[in-house]
Amino acid sequence: xxxxxxxxxxxxxxxxKSTVGVILxxxxxxxxxxxxLLIQRREGMRLSRIIEEKGIDGFIAIENEVNASxxxxxxxxxxxxxxxxxxxxxxxxxxxxxxxxLQADFETIRKRLHNxxxxxxxxxEGQTLRDLYEERSVLYEKYADLIVREGxxxxxxxxxxxxxxxxxxxxxxxx
Length: 175
Prior knowledge:
This protein is α/β, with parallel strands linked by helices. It contains 7 helices and 6 strands. The protein has a 6-stranded parallel beta sheet, with helices on both faces. Strand 5, helix 7 (155-168) and strand 6 form a beta-alpha-beta unit. Helix 1 packs across helix 7, helix 2 (35-43) packs across helix 3 (47-68) and helix 3 packs across helix 4 (87-96). The protein is globular, with a radius of gyration of 15 Å.
């Protein structure tokens, strides 16, 4: 079994996983991995094109496979918003790190997501962003070791909150 020395960020698209992840990695001296970029590299195309060509279920299968194969140590790992649909991947990610849910409220996500299709968000036909938010929130909470409410805070504030919470000890906490 791999060492559990990584931090894995989960949450809705536009919740700040990649942005917070890069800064968090710099501050604590870890490397940074963005699993969306690993998927794009492996498939040789943007996420939106993968979804277009392989469908949402095909994309989720690829994402699950890529996330389940991540081998890392002392890394901050930012996952795609749909990573929580992959049970195998989430088991693996929990085995190698602490899973942190960056929780942003629906209005914040709605304001940040301008072109949902271009961004490569796995949204099913007829599904609204609100539907997606409610469906995934339950899964994010299920897999999270730690929930950090983003609020209206600056990125540095969110990073500081994560670090403070991690230093304060173990166990599932909401901040």
